[in-house]
């Protein structure tokens, strides 16, 4: 059950891409439903903690150019993730720290100065309709709320009530949220704290790789190239996958590969030979060989790697 929203967040400026994201909807891949969720999960969790939310509460994820929103009621908010100028009612306020936004005032996250994706968390969380236990927007499948545009509204949760990931009767079975949450998970103004150590955007992105399951489709020199060559993050990257620029990987096998399951972090190699690292909106099946899989813990850096960032794959 979702709580009845007491107010709305109005989108004044949506920027290049602003979506609602939470911890995603894992566990549905067998039905063809991807995970989705915040690409920089540690940043989203930290933003939620700073406003008193549980880690899985829904936030806004912006890309490169930020966004501007206006709440109906006073709310505690934080802008973190990619470094950017932050303003409330036109006045500069702290980035990466909780700020109070009066009712009707515009909270603006400006263009990213470092990194790529900023996260806006609000005490009480965001409460658009959930799909399969998550409020995340999946750009590939179209599940969840659509990317936001100017004039759109998003329901704000009540900061006085528990919030977080929506419980549903999914593959793990039904559960009772009231039995899973304690007083520490209630929303509200954060307690005083010192400086927060937000991770910086990577100057060089290093991705640890477990080879397989189709590394035997590639030549030995191609595997050496994968694990030793310098690549760059392509500007054609998105929430579906991080595309690379660099040397192509040669494979001696040219026959078609029947479509098979792929996972978060899979490195798929399309016909041009340049690796693509699947991110949170990736498909659940694919017909190109997967040469390896990147450990999930390394993908937060991929979410903040701007185009042109040096990229190295190393053996995990």
Q: What would you say about this model in short?
A:
It is built from 4 helices and 20 strands. The protein is mainly beta and 316 residues long. It has helices at 41-50, 177-180, 220-228, 299-304; strands spanning 7-13, 18-21, 59-63, 67-71, 75-83, 86-88, 91-93, 99-101, 107-109, 114-122, 153-156, 204-211, 231-233, 241-245, 260-261, 266-268, 276-278, 285-286, 290-294, 310-315.
Q: Which key terms come to mind for this protein?
A:
316 residues; 6-stranded antiparallel β-sheet; mainly beta; 20 strands; single chain; 7-stranded mixed beta barrel; 9% helix
Task: Report what the structure shows.
- The protein has 316 residues and is mainly beta.
- The protein is built from four helices and 20 strands.
- The chain has helices at 41-50, 177-180, 220-228, 299-304; strands spanning 7-13, 18-21, 59-63, 67-71, 75-83, 86-88, 91-93, 99-101, 107-109, 114-122, 153-156, 204-211, 231-233, 241-245, 260-261, 266-268, 276-278, 285-286, 290-294, 310-315.
- The strands form four sheets. Strands 12-19-16-17-14-13-20 form a seven-stranded mixed beta barrel. Strands 7-6-9-4-1-11 form a six-stranded antiparallel β-sheet, with no helix packed on it.
- The longest helix is centred in the first third of the chain and has 10 residues, at 41-50.
- It is elongated.
- The model is unreliable at 164-192 (pLDDT under 50).
């Amino acid at each position: 059950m979702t709580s009845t929203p007491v107010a709305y967040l109005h989108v004044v400026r949506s920027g290049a891409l602003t979506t609602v994201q939470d911890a995603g909807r894992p566990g549905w891949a067998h039905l063809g439903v991807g995970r989705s969720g915040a690409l920089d999960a540690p940043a989203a969790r930290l933003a939620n903690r700073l406003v008193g939310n549980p880690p899985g509460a829904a936030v806004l994820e912006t890309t490169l150019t930020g966004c501007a929103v206006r709440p109906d009621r006073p709310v505690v908010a934080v802008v973190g993730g990619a470094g950017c100028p932050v303003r409330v009612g036109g006045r500069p306020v702290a980035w990466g720290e909780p700020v109070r936004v009066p009712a009707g005032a515009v909270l603006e996250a400006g263009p990213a100065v470092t990194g790529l994706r900023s996260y806006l968390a609000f005490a009480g969380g965001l409460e658009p309709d959930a799909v399969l236990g998550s409020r995340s927007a999946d750009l590939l499948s179209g599940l969840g709320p659509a990317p936001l545009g100017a004039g759109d509204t998003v329901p704000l949760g009540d900061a006085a009530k528990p919030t977080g990931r929506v419980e549903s009767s999914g593959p793990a079975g039904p559960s009772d949220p009231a039995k899973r949450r304690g007083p520490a998970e209630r929303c509200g103004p954060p307690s005083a704290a010192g400086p927060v150590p937000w991770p910086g955007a990577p100057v060089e992105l290093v991705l640890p790789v477990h080879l397989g399951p189709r590394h035997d489709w590639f030549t030995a020199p191609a595997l050496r190239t994968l694990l030793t060559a310098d690549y760059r993050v392509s500007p054609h990257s998105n929430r579906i996958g991080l595309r690379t620029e660099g040397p192509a990987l040669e494979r001696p096998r040219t026959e078609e590969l029947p479509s098979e399951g792929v996972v978060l972090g899979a490195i798929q190699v399309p016909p041009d030979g340049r690796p693509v690292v699947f991110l949170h909106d990736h498909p659940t099946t694919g017909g190109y060989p997967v040469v390896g899989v990147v450990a999930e813990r390394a993908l937060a850096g991929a979410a903040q790697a701007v185009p042109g960032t040096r990229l190295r794959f190393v053996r995990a």
